[in-house]
Write a structure and sequence with these properties.
It is found in: Endomembrane system. With 486 residues, the protein is mainly alpha-helical. The protein is built from 20 helices and 4 strands. A two-stranded antiparallel sheet has the order 1-4. It has a two-stranded antiparallel sheet with strand order 2-3.
Length: 486
């Protein structure tokens, strides 16, 4: 993504009621300011379709991440998850198009889904986990409305924000390798290649081939590389399965890549409104607060950077990141957390893949409307997405993880006050299988090392407060024992 000093091209549209609209333009042009931003309807439609193609993989990956069991042993149905993912993406993206009027598309955030699956569900039921999504969405909306987002963004060091993104990327990649069967829990070692130190079966080899194909397509800058890779891997899987080369039982979960019945079906909205806000007493107020905070970290900071980055690419932002409608975009992104929780498909956030549509000429919210309508159309084709084998979808998870790790180029590895906290943040997320542990270690180590360098005044009250909270988080068990809680 090109980062350069640009002057906003859309400031006239925010000049107030006195701004005059030239005669002869259609209502569509006037509402979305298509001509003012130097675009056209055809370019907007093309950009919206391109963005959808680049991020349609979320319909497969989000159900994969949320396929685990909750504390009660219950799971979310795949068909219902696909419907929830598509409906929430459609609604929030349409909202961004019609209200925000910027070329930004939203869908389930993989980092948020990762937190829900690995950290929240093992301690709560799925309805309670979706209730946490609603809470974190409300928190982000309040941060935007009150202006506290600026204070928070300035308080947490930029390098640590990059470290959080990288850690979540490595965490997501681990999930992909594990769910594909490429990595197993070893007998004499914590993890191993395949079930016994070697790859076993055609499905895992198909995962490796799909992964390599996507990387090759990305290296060639092919638009929609992830989606093309998934489609290609699924076709290959269907051929191998139909030819009898692969025993159907070898596919993950025993789900062979074949279509049962019609390719078109009515959407399954059984997860809609399936949320709960009570029953948190078993996990404790501290745990609930830390989970909400982690979800805010996972969804808020990436969205801020993505909105500014895509806005700059679309020549809507200046060199200081000021963009027409920024507050609306941030508010809608926060609302996406609550909307996704109510839909049952995880919190929604702005996708960096929106930049692919901008690259095709998208400059207005009309492109987002097109993307949202395409997601809505997918509600009736869930049987087609259900035939994608887990091994193929897992390859895309690894690719997303690799893309998130590219933030390493922004870290000053020569500065220990930066390098050590980022390192601990990145490695502890996958090593402990807990995103909060990585964030906590990063915050504590940054505060300690910066203070040891005689720069305690640079830390700030907010970071000191976070350090205290995370110290309690790590020492929660002995503290509860000391207080006689356990």
């Amino acid at each position: 993504m090109t980062q350069q000093s640009l002057k906003p091209t859309a400031t006239a549209e925010d000049a107030g009621e006195g701004t005059r609209v030239p005669a002869g333009r259609s209502w569509l042009d006037q509402y979305f300011h298509i001509s003012r931003r130097g675009s056209g309807v055809a370019r907007e439609v093309r950009g919206g379709v391109t963005t959808f193609m680049a991020m349609a993989y979320i319909l497969l990956l989000n159900p994969l991440i949320l396929s685990g069991r909750d504390v009660a042993g219950d799971t979310l149905g795949r068909q219902a998850l696909i419907t929830a993912t598509a409906s929430a993406a459609a609604f929030t993206t349409l909202l961004m198009g019609f209200v925000g009027r910027v070329p930004l598309a939203l869908a389930a955030g993989l980092s948020v889904s990762g937190v829900l699956s690995s950290q929240v569900a093992p301690q709560m039921t799925w309805p309670q986990a979706m209730g946490m999504c609603v809470l974190y969405g409300v928190v982000i909306m309040l941060l935007v409305v009150t202006g506290l987002r600026e204070m928070i963004m300035n308080a947490i060091p930029l390098a640590l924000k990059h470290g959080i993104t990288m850690g979540i990327g490595l965490f997501i990649a681990l999930i992909g390798f594990y769910k594909s069967g490429f990595v197993h829990q070893g007998r004499a070692t914590p993890v191993t290649l395949g079930p016994a130190g070697e790859l076993s079966g055609w499905p895992v080899l198909l995962f490796a081939a799909t992964l390599l194909l996507i990387f090759m397509l990305q290296a060639r800058n092919v638009p929609g590389a992830i989606l093309i890779g998934i489609v290609g891997g699924t076709v290959a899987a269907a051929i191998l399965n139909a030819a009898g080369v692969v025993d159907p039982r070898q596919w993950a979960g025993g789900a062979a890549p074949e279509l049962h019945g019609s390719a078109v079906s009515m959407p399954d909205f059984s997860l809609f409104g399936h949320i709960a806000f009570g029953g948190w007493g078993k996990v404790g107020a501290m745990t609930v607060a830390l989970i909400v905070f982690t979800l805010v970290l996972a969804g808020f900071f990436d969205a801020m950077a993505t909105i500014i980055g895509v806005g700059t690419e679309a020549k809507l932002a200046d060199d200081q990141g000021r963009m027409p409608g920024l507050s609306k975009a941030l508010f809608i992104d926060g609302a996406g957390g609550a909307i996704g929780g109510v839909a049952g498909g995880s919190g929604q956030t702005v996708f960096i893949e929106s930049a692919t549509g901008v690259g095709e000429g998208a400059r207005t919210g009309l492109a987002s409307v097109v993307t949202g309508l395409l997601f809505a159309a997918c509600l009736f084709f869930t049987p087609l997405t259900a035939i994608v084998p887990q091994e193929v979808a897992s390859a895309a998870l690894v690719v997303i993880g690799a893309m998130m790790l590219m933030n390493a180029r922004h870290v000053d590895w020569a500065d220990r006050a930066t390098a050590v906290p980022v390192f601990l943040t990145v490695v502890l997320m996958p090593f402990t299988y807990t995103i909060t542990a990585g964030v906590a270690a990063g915050v504590i180590s940054y505060t300690a090392i910066t203070a040891a360098q005689g720069r305690a005044r640079e830390i700030g009250a907010f970071m000191w407060g976070l350090t205290g909270i995370f110290l309690v988080y790590f020492a929660l068990h002995p503290i509860e024992g000391w207080l006689g809680v356990r």
